[in-house]
Fold:
Amino acid sequence: MDRFSFLNAAHSQLIEDLYQQYLKFPDSLEPSWKAFFQGFDFALENYSDEEDIREIKNSGNSSPAVQQISQAASNGEVPEHIKKEFKVVNLIEAYRTRGHLFTKTNPVRERRHHSPTLDIENFGLEKSDLNTKFNCAVETGMKGPASLQEIITHLENIYCDSIGIEYMHINNVKEKDFIKQWIQVNENHPVLNANEKTEILLKLNQAVAFENYLHTKFVGQKRFSLEGGETLIPALDQLISRSSQLGVDEVVLGMAHRGRLNVLTNIFGKSYKQIFSEFEGKEFEEDVFSGDVKYHLGSSKKIKTASGEEVSINLTPNPSHLETVAALVEGICRAKVDDKYKDYSKILPIIIHGDGALAGQGIAYEVAQMMNLEGYRTGGTVHIVVNNQVSFTTNYMDARSSTYCTDIAKVTESPVMHVNADDAEAVVHAIHFAADFRAKFGKDVYIDLLGYRKYGHNEGDEPRFTQPNLYKKISKHPNPREIYKDLLLKENVVSNDLIAKMEADFKELLDKDFDASKEIEKNVMDIFMADDWTKFPIGKRGAVQEAVDTKYDLEKLKELAIKMSTLPADKKFLNKITRLFENRIKAIEANNLDWALGEWLAYATLLVEGHNIRISGEDVERGTFSHRHAVVKTEDNEEEYIPLKEVSESRFDVFNSHLSEYGVLGFDYGYAMASPNTLTIWEAQFGDFVNGAQIIVDQYLAAAEEKWKIQDGLVMLLPHGSEGQGAEHSSARLERFLTLCANENMVVANITSPANYFHLLRRQLKWSFRKPLIVMSPKSLLRHPKVVSPLEDFSNKGFQPILDDPTADPAKIEKLVLCSGKLYFELLAKKEELNCENVALVRFEQLYPLQTDAIEAVFAKYSNRTSLVWAQEEPENMGAWSYILRNFRDTGIQVVSPVQSGAPAPGSHKMFEKNQNAVINRVFDRDDAPVKRPVTA
Structure:
């Protein structure tokens, strides 16, 4: 069927409209129409004489192309030369969209075969057309018409050499045009002078020689070498240098363990002797720090680039959980933008991925989706994949379903360059593109360095068990330094003498540092981002237990409370919102402040004192349980009004996150790591959702200070408590956090008073050090009539880790009941119902660290007791009981709780009522019938 037969049926007005659209927004057209109009424009300009063009232009109002289309349609034919132009245009488009599939990017394997190929026969062209000149050559950056053979050679050089580029999935026309123009310069190949080439060789020599030295001096020791991907070192060097010239003042880098030692020494300038000493396995100077393996440690330095710019560079500490660090890097960068730079172009996040991790780890997607989100954007990240083509022992074909490990880039319409890691100049060229594109558009860029891994997963592993053929090739394959050295010798850029001196000088430096490392008795751990923490020395043991002044002037408190609870009269809000704020004013006047007001006052007072606030998480603006309403919207046009922004010049930010726990918690932990003067809060929609972010909790929140001397003041709000909702959403898994507690590494609280919550939050920023705070936050207590505090409790008291029974007469107490959280109010209701005088109810507001002196005072006060009980609504094998027993094992303490269970709460509401009633009855030695309890959260 004639491919142009559709023109006979096409309405001329439709063609006219499409042509006008083509002139203004060519990439918005369906590709076949775009190619069609391109062909006719070329044909009209180059194959018609002036008289014909004049005649067409004077014949009516339609454009010449439309008239010629109509004329061709009416004749039932299109000239052959025009058809050929179309076919060449299609070939050009194919190189742009599929050229990356046919590149020379794999140094040790043949590329997979893809069909159809780019053979001209697949586009209706023949070998006889190779010498024919086509005008569409100018579309590829050529200066004028060129033969088909010249066009193909040009396209092969751009799209199918050592670099393959994916960018046609991008919808933004300006971005696509920028890329097209950038890669057409010098046919997507670098133009480097002799000094630049020598500098690349120098960095390659450092990378290769360092790995070889470690391999001979520390035989069999794990180091996760970079061998096979050494061009990462000149790549990072060039990325930092190029970006600094484009305005970047600071770089934050995240990477896993592969190649980390090489980056630490040859990019961050960590001394070789320090690395050698760490290989000896010596202890760290400070006994209180457990330290970490050498390939997990971080670093912060100020360097001067080859072009003279000064740049701060940071390598974020990372555990073995590969992609975890990516979220932290983004959070650190955002904090530095907010606090220091006020400009995304001033700071550059770089994430180095493994191919298997980027394709397989879900957090990579969670972080990628942050790119354009208001609360999480960082102005674009450069992603570099050190692509070994194998994950531990797993072949790449078993590691993903996608064609490339970088296919996640299509989610954010980010460009990708796949580069042969053996071609050092191509790697540098791709890195220059990444720096330029990111600087221009503030978007993510992906650079896929296709190399190999010389040894196994670690140096003691045998890769030939699982990839025998691949490792036969790798064993005979020259390293990138040798390949590049030979190239520069052929080009007469360097001499054998220069190379010999370069290698000898570096070997001498390594030998000298190796000998010096023997004299180091104990290793010293550098503090990551130390300049940001000069005012916050690590707290001495016991500092968490010391009282802190968190009070605030009573009159100023009331003034702030009224100000933040008053909506502007010139804006129309929903009636429910208006009533809610009116009720807050009434509560202030009645001197009964609920949870929301207590929380708001903590924020407001900190803001007035010059601190910043950041709250982040799912639905935090309103709050899962509709209590916070930090952001309210007008009824008619949804204009946002944020009352807490009106109380101070300090920054109050509250952001609903995307539906992510792992990525967002990591981001906010990173934010708090870089912003010690900000109260940074991550709130889970429900407490059990933190399960999805357990790696951040285990590897960073609980252990970072001991492993890396890193402080972090992140607050985690985890709604917790059995409310009859079933197994899900009942428990924030308090037991898991208490299991992780040691050496005052965090604070765990379960608060029952708005005023106490106020003081707890304020204490976070009043300390001279920082600790993570985990709060089992309330649900039903948000509106419980007894969960209110007078303003005097905000202004006169401080944080109370233990709340004694205010009505108990010590002389009458036979049973001392310790508890925490909302169960207290259910026990209190029963106590009041029974008019019970022989039971005292004492609340542990802070579960870790336990306030030992306050607890001993309570025990001494109730010395007449005959029994000591820990009461909890969680099953016996959950909640705080195991922790309490560990700390009070010599007191004879007993537990009252539901029986052990694999689920935190029953699915049946009647069973929930039965369990809750049984706990309450056992505390008071009763056997009363269950009380109906509504589902409250």
About this structure: The chain has a mean pLDDT of 90. Residues 194-217 form the longest helix (24 residues). The chain is about 40% helix and 10% strand. Residues 816 and 868 are 5 Å apart (CA to CA).
